[in-house]
Amino acid sequence: MTLAIVTGASRGIGRAIACALARRGVDLILVGRPSAELSKLQADLAGTVRVCVETCDLAAASSVAASGARLANEHAPDVLINNAGVVERAAIEDTTAEAWDRQLAVNLRAPFQLTRALLPGMRRRRQGRIINVGSISSTVGSPRAAAYAASKWGLVGFTKSLAQELSDSGVSTLVVLPGSVDTEMLAGSGFAPRMTAEDVASTIVFHALDAPAAHNGAVIEMFGT
Ligand code: NAP
Description:
Distance between the termini: 35 Å
Order of helices and strands: EHEHEHEHEHHEHE
Radius of gyration: 16 Å
Oligomer: single chain
Strand content: 15-25%
Shape: globular
Number of helices: 7
Helix content: 40-55%
Bound molecules: NADP nicotinamide-adenine-dinucleotide phosphate
């Protein structure tokens, strides 16, 4: 059985990814903060595939380290999808150092920590896909979202460096950069939705399960329709 670890599945793109993977028969570990939405998703999918929840606050380095260690001890995932993200919209003059750190923590440090924890197992099995969810706003910039855009640009540099380290390992990585997706995160941004969460999910599932590993290092930009 194929096993995927997905962060941020309580709603939006992460939920669509989890549902699309379940439809393909992939067992799931959903990493996130406890919520009614996450529990309901687990219950809804449980009839189809095996679904576990790993409780984790991705903003807290200690929580991610503990979850990473637990996951690495107990599971050998085929796929890791670092999807969870957070944006706190404010002009640069109004962005506090704490808000900057929170966004960098969830969007960039947590993917690094989970990757570092799970990579040894993937390398041992000489198989695995690590898919990071970035954002078009990192390449074009985004007013009132400098910390967010910077964190997502960091994720591109992280993914490309990881891709080079993974050369000939059997494990591959890439980053998907969606434009405006119709989810809660987009509300209040001033941008109109240009794609659905399912559009992004099907792109990610294709790269997780079907695409050649030769896509290692790809930056997949999705501008929408
Ligand atoms: P969303 O609907 O706001 O969902 C965000 C997910 O991240 C939720 O499941 C949330 O869980 C989780 N999360 C946030 N902070 C967390 C924390 N500290 N610990 C654990 N989980 C946390 O956003 P979305 O639109 O689906 O975004 C998914 C990914 O796509 C993000 O990386 C986002 O940056 C990226 N993206 C989105 C868009 C867009 O237009 N929507 C565009 C480009 C890229 P909780 O239930 O615990 O809050």
